[in-house]
Amino acid sequence: MAVRILFAAVAAFPIVFMMVSSLKPDQQIFGDMSSVAAFLPIGNISLDNYAAVFDRVPAARFLINSIGISAVTVVLGIFINSLCAFALSRMEVRGKRVVFTAILATLIVPFQTLALPLVWWVNQLPYFELNGFSLEISKGWLDTYQVQIIPFIANAFSIYLFHQYFESIPKELDEAARIDGAGWFTIYRRVVMPLAGPATATVAILTFLPAWNSYLWPLMVVQSEELRPVMIGIQYFFQLNVSWGEVMAYASLITIPVVVLFIAFQRSFINSIASSGVKG
Amino acid sequence: MTTTQLPPTGRRLADPTPALPPRKPRRRRRNLREQISGWGMIAPAAVLLLAFVFLPAILGFGLAFTNARLVSPRPVEFVGTDNFARLFADPTFWRSLLNVSYFAVVVVPVQSGIALAMALLINKKFRGVNFFRTIYFLPVVTSMVVVSLLWMFMYRKDGLINEMLSAASFGLINGPDWLNDPATAMPAIIALSIWQAAGFHMIIWLAGLQSISGELYEAAQLDGASRWHQFRYVTWPGLKHTRTLVLVTITIQALGLFDQVSVMTQGGPLDSTTTIIYEAVRSGFKQQETSYASAISLVFFVLVLLISAVQRYLSREKD
Fold first, then answer.
1. Fewer CB near the last or first residue (10 Å), C or N of chain B?
2. What angle do helix axes B55-63 and B290-317 make, rounded to 10 degrees?
3. Within the 40-59 window of chain B, which residues sit less than 8 Å (CB to CB) from chain A?
């Protein structure tokens, strides 16, 4: 048990330090560091740092952007990937084996390899914009919301997870529904998806975490402040003479939503990580 | 998630007399509709994967042999292997390769070992097992960018790490300025990387541990095997597949080191923490040299393929 507690202490101390420090003025953070007070919310405790963060950076804007981008990516990702997996798993589509193999082949390409050619590529893509009543076409997706969403909707691993799960749902259910005159989309929506809760949760979590945490990609493709996600906000704190209390407040602010989700859906989080293990 | 393969009896159920000639046209029409709706369902994901994975991958391969820039008035020209010649003559590239190798050589055994230890600690049911699992996993749900920022603060000369070292040694140890010293910057990044990611691999080990049958342990106990012998002769062989998996994923993650370096050191001091991906981003994004960055990405991809091929081969040998 002592070893377990030691490991827990090592795992938790930086996060406790971060959250506790976010409540203290700078002077006290440094004063407390040499004692156990560094990990205790004692002394001059206030939410001043949080208030200052909202003054220094457009934190509310960043949070709204990240929530929007992650939510849209998760919802569209679940829909499009499960739909694809449904057809590949339960319908007799000619050539589906080739398609499935090609989809799985994309798993060997790490995103870091794609990132730089992809920047060049999205900069060549056409961009349609409705301006009043005229449709305007311009070149380049850089500096938009869609460049942060659309490339990450389709995901081979999500398709694989849905496919595996759909294979475990008896196909007699489809046939029964077909005898009742249901179309394929109805079977997908009314029969298969309601039974695929665990797979949906896994895919939702595995899509949400990288969307919320994305850093490399928005760093390269988003310049406008009003389009930036939370992780890029960290750059505002790289200047000299920054207040560390404020840095810790911002870091806590963008971490707490994920920690709350994790604690609420612990079992699903653990299961999704365990299933992501088969990816190797 | 178990996969139950059912025989495709459904079709015959719905259409009990497929041999009869008059039914045939109807069946064909139904099949055509199945084809159309099937492809309609596959298409959105397939098109997106084509546009944002296949094409950029092929483009990256092609661009590496051109002079393409992110924004340039000049047309893209084929330049042969110029980018690779320049890359292999660049000492910063070799330094970045050395740095990620150093990172991987330390992180792979240490992180997988610590993760396995954590998995063993919470494998058996006991009061509070959920609490410990949650705490061990907490760093994983914290983004690497936040973790890097937090540890940057802790690694200061007057930061938490040095204060703790000093307190633990009664003032004897006077810690270095971790991230500004070429000798300590990489070890500092290694430590925080292991801290952040060990919980992830703990879960993968745990899934492997739980797939080992309890009967094997009972049999070993009946034979009077010590706890070490149980680990050595039951657990360790039982984890063979998990082992390969953990090694491959940690190695590939290690080679792709970027976030920590980008937030904490920008490759410094004196290139002691620069990495392959950091160099690719520096040339492709900051200097807008897409072609040169694509060449670096291609080298990275070949490395990743090589490593997974070697590890797969080695783990197959022992079968």
1. C
2. 110
3. 41-42, 44-49, 51-57, 59
Q: Between the CA of residue B120 and those of A207, B168, B240, B314, what are the distances in Å?
A: 29, 28, 16, 25
pTM of this prediction exceeds 0.90: no
Chain centroid to CA A278: how far?
Answer: 20
Contacting residues of A for B145, CB less than 8 Å apart: 213, 215, 231, 234
Least confident of A89-103, B2-16, B252-266: B2-16
* Residue whose token pair is 């920590």: B260
What is the reported pLDDT for B6?
41
pLDDT, tens only, A216-252: 899 888 888 889 999 998 888 877 677 888 889 999 9
Residue identified by tokens 């039914």 is B23
Mutation target vs B (from A101, A109, A120; most B CBs, 10 A cutoff): A120
- What's the pLDDT at B299? 92
Q: Which residue of A has its CA nearest to B32?
A: A93
* CB < 8 Å to A206, chain B: none
Q: Mean per-residue pLDDT for A95-124?
A: 86
Rounded to a whole number of angstroms, the distance from the CA of B230 to the nearest CA of chain A is 20
Cα separations in angstroms, A80 against A83, A214, B151:
5, 21, 38
CA pair distance B139, B124, nearest whole angstrom: 22
B108 neighbors B102 (Cβ within 8 angstroms): no
pLDDT in tens, A24-53: 888 888 888 777 887 888 888 888 889 988
Side-chain-facing half-sphere of B3: CA atoms under 13 Å: 10
Collapsed DSSP state (helix, strand, coil) of residue B66: strand
Whether residue A117 is predicted with pLDDT greater than 90 in this model: the reply is no
Residue B50's pLDDT is what?
Answer: 92
**CB-CB neighbours of B76 under 10 Å:** 15
B158 touches chain A (CB under 8 A): yes
Spell out which residues of chain A touch residue B166, defining contact as CB-CB under 8 Å: 34
Instruction: Tell me the ipTM for this assembly.
Output: 0.86
